[in-house]
Specification:
With 755 residues, the chain is mainly beta. 4% of the residues lie in helices and 45% in strands.
């Protein structure tokens, strides 16, 4: 009887719900947001074509991330229109390609991967490629000294033929410049940016012995380049000044004719290429590049790839002798650095080193540290140094700059004596409190930290500091035995910014007992579009995590011992930041039983629109420019898509950079001045305002990626970028205020308004 009543009750409920669904009209979305595709992958042949998938969604949907070689029909829809979607792909004349197309309804989305065959995969096609970006080149106080023989950060070759590659060069250096790299606003191709090669006097760049794939004869050489001769009225690229040759033996050279896709440009990066065919059986290739005009040409993204079709036939027997000589010099005779380590460290990068009878005080698998009564310095061998602690050595080489400190590169080492007594100075103790104070020289240090393995790297963290870590440079022992453990280290600090490099002299595992509990960080940040963030719980106790915002969930919510906590959430589509407190706690007897991890989820900033005009008049002073200036000095900008003619630039670059100065006339009654101001891309600057001899205000200006090169600048701003300078008191009369950059920096100002 009870079973019968239960059945009847269930039947009645079902009938009620059915009737309600039939009678009630509800045109809004029902159920949880979801979207489904009938497949996650589509494969196309080289010729292209069309395929169809089925889509089911509970909300309005749309398609994003569609390249120009794919067509999607339809691109959007609603739940009532759940139907077939047609994917059409064009013919592929290039390499194999793939694209992830995103179908989204806001809180949910699915990805469709579209693959298409071509001439082969990138790994099969690329024989040699170098973007020269292994390590960022840094300009010293005396100029660029990153000659290719003293700086290895340009060696970033990839491809199937690089195992046999060697280099020869002269008059060549690696450089970087935020406004002049191959991915700057002066580039007409998607360059790699960072470093480029600079062709100085008596220059050439020779890539030796590229191994060619068996059976291939058609190839394309491509490279990014720009003509940038200082103060030249016309910097249109001249191919006769930038010569490219190939050889099969490095002796006889055939000149290549190359072309840019859109003709020759005036001081703009573009990608040149030349397709050619070598004789059957050619096993290796040499590339030789020379600029006949010194200090005018830049190069980036050198590439040799298999071509889909034949090009200019190459007859190596008709090649000419270029007399390269195989020199690997830096292009300038280095100045001597002095005969003490202090003198070596004080000399500019590129200086000659000749030290006698100095003591080895630290050794790695690739380098060693030497010490005399004046200081210590790292000698980078890039191979087994074949010395040991206690040796006295004679060292000859060249100074280079790495991780912010001078080191000795390309050394010649001779051991004079061994088993000498080594006495280390009292170490500087690294702690959470002083880790931000980067030492300015090679320094003997000690610290205790926790070892974490990140992919193939071993990073050491001190306490809860996560924005700086340490690593044992080319450590001679086994780091795996220290992972997730505390170690105590003594050794030489040899440079670093975010990552401190240590040449270890003592490493000891710290054996701990009793309960331990901590977190890797107490502050997390997420961009508006991010949907997750994570942090680590450290220790050996049981713990729990709680979020004060239900929309920000944690996983796992509890654990025992070390673990990673992931916070998941939806993208922030509002303009306001969201702050979430995550409480991590334990009941065990530890010094700190609870930590609060604050997650800041940034909001979207609405772009500013309107006229970016100024109501303040100004007079140009030293090294200042505006719309009235002539030639390349004339200033203007496009801000959030609007043309702005009232732009003021202060400061100049070049061989003699200098601060800029201008005078603003503020009307009587002014209490504050608002403006947009940015320093040059990749730099910071300080703007100082003075009335007479009295400084009334200063404002630090941050960089904007659009502020680079010559005007017109293409700048994007938000309301948060508007700056305000408050005056000490209301101006009684019209008053001249002098503004200047605090150093030899460049800044751009606009929308300057007195209130």
């Amino acid at each position: 009887m009870k079973l019968k009543n239960l059945f009847l009750g269930s039947f009645a409920l079902t009938a009620m719900l059915f009737a309600q669904s039939c009678d009630d009209k509800n045109d809004g979305p029902t159920g949880a947001p979801s979207i489904e595709l009938s497949t996650q992958t589509l494969d196309f042949e080289k010729d292209g074509g069309s395929q169809t998938i089925k889509l089911t969604a509970t909300r309005d949907w749309n398609v994003t991330n569609v390249p120009d070689w794919i067509a999607v029909d339809p691109k959007s829809g609603n739940p009532a229109e759940n139907k077939e979607v047609t994917i059409t792909v064009l013919e592929n004349t290039g390499m194999d390609r793939s694209q992830d197309i995103k179908f989204t309804i806001g809180f949910d989305g699915k990805t469709l991967t579209v693959n298409q065959k071509g001439t082969g995969s990138a790994s099969e096609v690329v024989v040699y490629h170098n973007d020269f970006d292994k390590e960022l080149a840094v300009k010293g106080e005396s100029g660029w000294k990153t000659y290719l023989d003293s700086f290895d950060g340009w060696k970033n070759e990839t491809g199937s033929g690089i195992s046999t590659v060697e280099y020869a060069f002269s008059g060549m250096s690696a450089r970087t410049n935020s406004s002049g790299t191959s991915n700057s606003q002066f580039s007409d191709y998607q360059g790699s940016g960072k470093n480029y090669l600079w062709f100085a006097k008596d220059n050439y760049f020779h890539v030796k012995n590229i191994t060619l794939p068996e059976g291939k004869t058609n190839y394309t050489i491509s490279f990014g380049s720009e003509r940038n001769l200082y103060q030249a009225a016309d910097n249109t690229f001249v191919p006769e000044e930038f010569l490219v040759y190939v050889s099969n033996d490095g002796s006889k050279w055939v000149k290549l004719e190359y072309a840019f896709p859109n003709g020759l440009k005036n001081r703009r990066w573009d990608l040149a290429s030349s397709t050619f065919t070598v004789p059957s059986g050619t096993k290796s290739l040499h590339i030789y590049i020379k600029a006949t005009l010194a200090s005018a040409y830049l190069m980036d993204d050198l590439d040799l790839s298999v071509a889909a079709s034949a090009g200019t036939a190459i007859d190596f027997s008709k090649g000419i002798d270029l007399g390269t000589g195989g020199s690997t010099g830096g292009g300038e005779t280095p100045e001597p650095a002095g005969n003490t380590i202090a003198a070596v460290c004080a000399a500019a990068a590129g200086s000659a080193v000749d030290l006698k009878d100095v003591l080895v005080t630290g050794v790695t698998t690739q380098s060693y540290v030497i010490t005399d009564e004046t200081g210590s310095v790292l000698v980078f061998v890039k191979a087994d140094p074949k010395v040991k602690v206690g040796d006295k050595v004679n060292v000859a080489g060249t100074t280079g700059e790495h991780n912010g400190l001078i080191q000795i590169t390309a050394p010649t080492t001779a051991v004079v004596s061994s088993n000498n007594t080594v006495t280390y100075p009292a170490p500087l103790e690294f702690t959470e409190a002083n880790l931000a104070d980067t030492p300015k020289k090679v320094t003997y240090v000690s610290f205790t930290g926790n070892v974490k393995k990140n992919n193939q790297y071993y990073n050491i963290y001190i306490g809860s500091v996560t924005d700086k870590d340490l690593s044992l440079s080319y450590y001679t022992g086994n780091m795996d035995e220290f992972v997730d453990c505390d170690i105590k280290v003594k050794g030489w600090y040899v440079g670093g910014g975010t990552h401190y490099q240590i040449v270890a002299t003592e490493v000891e595992k710290v054996e701990t007992t009793g309960p331990k509990f901590s977190v890797s960080t107490t502050a997390l940040t997420a961009k508006a579009g991010d949907t997750s963030a994570s942090f680590d719980v450290k220790g050996n106790v049981k713990w729990t995590v709680a979020s004060d915002n239900a929309a920000y969930t944690v996983s796992p919510a509890s654990g025992d011992g070390a673990g990673t906590v992931t916070v998941k959430f939806a993208a922030n589509e509002t303009e306001k930041d969201v702050t979430v407190k995550l409480t991590v706690s334990t009941t065990e007897e530890v010094a700190t039983k609870s930590y609060t991890v604050v997650l800041t989820h940034s909001g979207t900033s609405a772009a500013v629109t309107g006229k970016f005009t100024s109501n303040v008049k100004w007079k140009l002073g030293d090294n200042s420019y505006d719309g009235s200036s002539s030639g390349n000095s004339k200033q203007s900008a496009v801000v959030n898509g609007e043309e702005v003619s009232q732009v003021l630039k202060l400061g100049k670059a070049g061989k003699a950079p200098a601060a800029g100065k201008a005078t603003l006339t503020l009307p009587a009654g002014t209490t504050k001045v608002t403006f947009y101001g940015f320093s040059w891309k990749g730099t910071k600057a300080t703007l100082v305002a003075s009335i007479g001899e009295t400084k009334v205000a200063s404002k630090e200006l941050t960089a904007n990626t659009g502020v680079a090169g010559n005007s017109p600048y293409k700048i994007t701003v938000t309301s948060a970028d508007l700056l305000t300078i408050e005056l000490p008191s209301k101006l009684a009369t019209d008053t001249d205020v002098e503004i200047t950059t605090a150093a030899a920096a460049r800044v751009v100002l606009f929308a300057i308004n007195a209130e």
